[in-house]
Write a structure and sequence with these properties.
The chain has 262 residues and is of the alpha+beta class. The protein contains 9 helices and 10 strands. A 6-stranded antiparallel beta sheet has the order 1-3-2-10-9-8, sandwiched between helices. Strand 8 and strand 9 form a beta hairpin. The longest helix has 19 residues.
Length: 262
């Protein structure tokens, strides 16, 4: 159970309002840890102010990992190494259940790579994701994650793997960079802003959720004049208060952000 701040200016804070918010944030996370539940969060703004709890603890990534293959493919498209209009055949044998809408197709169907990216993000479509991973190769995706500095990309037997806040922040910094500079940034930003499922209720939250078994996560960044990254990873999916916990952490981090930006 580790609560990290970037500097002593937050450890010995004279601002009582900020100190109280930090204490509240720490205590609600500690309470879950004492109950035997695993939770983590990470906040970082562009001034490199960082607050985190259990940032190096690994969780099953679930669908949060889907941003990695999509960003990788878009970067390859920018370099003219992939044609987003190329059609990929999705057969009936390819269909994966759980999240997504491709599973409802009635026959073998062609989808453009761009459409698979859209469905992968907006509908968190598992079939779309796995087709994209197979297209680039799991080993190449792992190399891409490691090139960003991540330690745990694609670890495990499946094609989702493990994640922690320390790796996830690197993925999202890559996403932000692409959305600022990439050729297909407008479309990608739309996908990330308007998914069919939202755990944390925030406007201007560019994010990707993940949910499988006990894993329950949401990660991304607030697209504001002074943006900040927000990552919340939990193993609370069997708990009826999971969404309440996640939004409480997000609320406190938003309040803390407002205080330190004054």
């Amino acid at each position: 159970m580790e609560f990290k701040l970037t500097s002593n200016k937050f450890m010995n804070v004279e601002n009582i309002e900020l100190k109280n918010k930090l204490d509240e944030l720490y205590n609600i996370c500690l309470n879950e840890s004492l109950k035997g539940n695993k939770v983590a969060f990470y906040y970082e703004n562009l001034n490199n102010d960082i607050f985190s709890y259990n940032q190096d603890i690994c969780f099953y990534a679930a669908s949060t990992i889907k941003i990695l293959v999509c960003t990788m493919i878009l970067r390859l498209a920018d370099e003219n190494k992939i044609d987003l209009n190329k059609e990929i055949l999705v057969t009936m044998d390819d269909l994966k259940q759980d999240t997504g809408i491709i599973k409802y197709q009635k026959e073998d169907t062609y989808y453009t790579i761009n459409k698979l990216i859209e469905l992968c993000i907006m509908e968190s479509d598992n079939t779309a994701y796995l087709k994209l991973v197979d297209m680039v190769g799991k080993d190449k995706l792992e190399e891409y994650g490691k090139s960003l500095g991540a330690e745990h990309t694609m670890e495990g037997k499946d094609k989702f793997g493990l994640i922690n806040c320390s790796d996830m922040i690197l993925y999202w910094k890559d996403v932000m960079d692409y959305l600022e500079n990439g050729k297909y940034s407008k479309e990608y930003k739309h996908y990330l802003l308007y998914p069919s499922v939202k755990f944390v209720k925030r406007d201007n939250f560019i994010k990707k959720y993940g949910s499988w078994d006990i894993a329950y996560h949401e990660a991304g960044y607030m697209d504001l004049k002074n943006p900040y990254y927000l990552i919340i990873l939990t193993q609370l999916n069997k708990m009826d208060y999971k969404k309440e916990f996640m939004n409480k952490v997000a609320d406190l981090l938003d309040e803390i952000n407002n205080i330190i930006r004054k």
